[in-house]
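step 3/5: co-fold with 2'-deoxycytidine-5'-monophosphate
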Amino acid sequence: MMAPFTVAIDGPAAAGKGTISKAVAAHFDLAHLDTGLLYRAVGARMLQGEEPIAAAQSLVAGDLENPDLRTADVAQAASKVAVIPEVRAALLDFQRAFARRSGGAVLDGRDIGTVICPQAEVKLFVTASAEVRAQRRLAELGERGFQTDFDAVLADVKARDDRDMNRADAPLRPAEDAVTIDTSDLSIKDAVACAVRVVAAARDT
Ligand code: DC
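step 4/5: write tokens
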């Protein structure tokens, strides 16, 4: 059985964490968990009228299949339920167990390197300017047929950053020993290559 090997990837919305995480997981044959989906699933159930703590405590795999999890409304709801300590506590054990599974895992989120897996073998902090992230989000929404404008998307990105970075419990910030990758001026290919280099170096030690 292979020893646990955890890659923790944190950063703000739309910085490229998801793309980098999937590529790193595929490159090193590691399992991948997008932890934002857990908070989105709780947010979606809150929007349907449920109390968020009860929703987090009774989350099931099927909740992660909800096709609406990627909408902007659910994203905002996710960052609202994510400030509730009991919601975070309810999701903790599942994430820790996933991180230490044999064969290794990549987890991406906001607090993976700081709270969920402070012992992770690799910690990356993937970031980009708010303007670049809003531009990317605008393009992605356009491709999916949603019409909106840059200022609205930028305001959304900044509101979510503000909630994610300034909450009392597990705020978004780089772990002290995280390697930061600023993707503002990087292509996807170069950002992935940079992350793969950092992980490969840790794999070899
Ligand atoms: O990564 P995402 O955009 O899908 O995350 C949605 C929200 O969930 C995000 O605004 C904050 C919250 N979140 C969190 O608090 N901790 C995590 N590890 C992952 C997401």
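step 5/5: annotate
The longest strand covers residues 122-127.
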